[in-house]
Structures are given as C-alpha cells and as structure tokens.
Amino acid sequence: MFDPFTKAGALIRRLQQISLRVFSEATAPFDLSTVQFGALQVIGDRPGIDQASLGQASDTDRTTVIRVVDRLQQRGLIRREPCPHDRRLNRLYVTSAGTQLIAGMAPLADSSQVRLLDPLSPDEREAFMRMLTKLVLAHSPPERATKPSSAQAQDSESAAIA
Q1: Distance between CA 101 and CA 95 in Å, rounded?
Q2: Residue 141: pLDDT band with limits 50, 70, 90
Q3: In angstroms, rounded to a whole number, what is the distance separating the alpha carbons of residues 40 and 32?
Q4: For the segment 3-44, what is each residue's pLDDT rounded down to a tens digit?
Q5: Count of alpha carbons within 13 Å of 105, Cβ hemisphere only?
Q6: Quick one: 48 and 127 in the same domain?
Q7: CATH code of the domain containing 91
Q8: Burial of 102 (0-12, 13-18, 19+ CB in 10 A)
Q9: Burial 24-57, CB ≥16 within 10 A → b, else e
Q10: Which domain holds residue 125?
Q11: Distance between CA 99 and CA 156 in Å, rounded?
C-alpha cells in the first residue's frame, strides 16, 4: 500500500501545497501569487533586469515569466522600457504602486513563512532550511544553482526563526 509519508517527493509536494495555502491566506488582500510576488521583489532588487534574467533569478520558465510580467504590468506594478543597446530586450522596473505593494505585502508574506515553520523548534528550523538549501543546490543545473549571499541566508534564517 502506498504511504506518502515514506516518500520524500510526496511530502515535498504536500508541503508546497500547504506553503501556497498559508501564503495565500496571509496575503489574500493583495491578490498576488507567490511567483508574482517573488518576481516583483526580484525586479525591485534589480532595477532594469531583463525578462530572461528575471526567469533565471526566480527559477521560472520563459512562458511563465512572460505571463507574470504581463500581469504585473497590467496591474501597474512594473513598467517595461526598451533596452537602448538591444531593442530585443525590455528592462523591468517597479513602479511606485509596486513599491507600495511590496512594502505592505512583505510583512504578511514573511509572517506566512514563520507560520509555516512554527511547528519546528529554532534549531529544527535552521537545520531544515540548511537541508532544503543543500537539496535544491545539489539538484539544480549549474546556471541555476545560486546560493544566497550570507546576508540573505541570515535574513532567511532570522525570518524563519522569528
């Protein structure tokens, strides 16, 4: 008999579903998915990023990036500007409305992460995040295996432990 609690993939998939639900519940008033919010944050952190680089930075396929960028632009959260050196590229920038949304939504998104990991002790959270990072890096293609900076890792650990 199949027991999903003995299969890492089944448990990871189930935890992803739970994570999405917890995030959606916490951030419902903003009506953005985790992928949309993540893309908006990446654009905010890297003003002028192009769509291909956004896909790499957010580990999102090209078709999804196009849809996400279209939706964010339709909502007035980002703007596209043609690249002066390569007309095939569009540079992406967060608008003032996007900056305001990030400021309002980020604390709720962070609280959803705390809520997700709340059943774990602080030591368990730290170990869990370390193991997740190790697995993601080990199974990512080299061009996508980007380890967060130590400041980002500390921020992630602080948010998970808070």
Answers
A1: 10
A2: confident
A3: 10
A4: 888 899 999 999 999 999 999 999 999 999 999 999 999 999
A5: 23
A6: no
A7: 1.10.10.10
A8: buried
A9: eebbeeeebeebbbbbbbbbbeeeebbbebbbbb
A10: 120-162
A11: 21
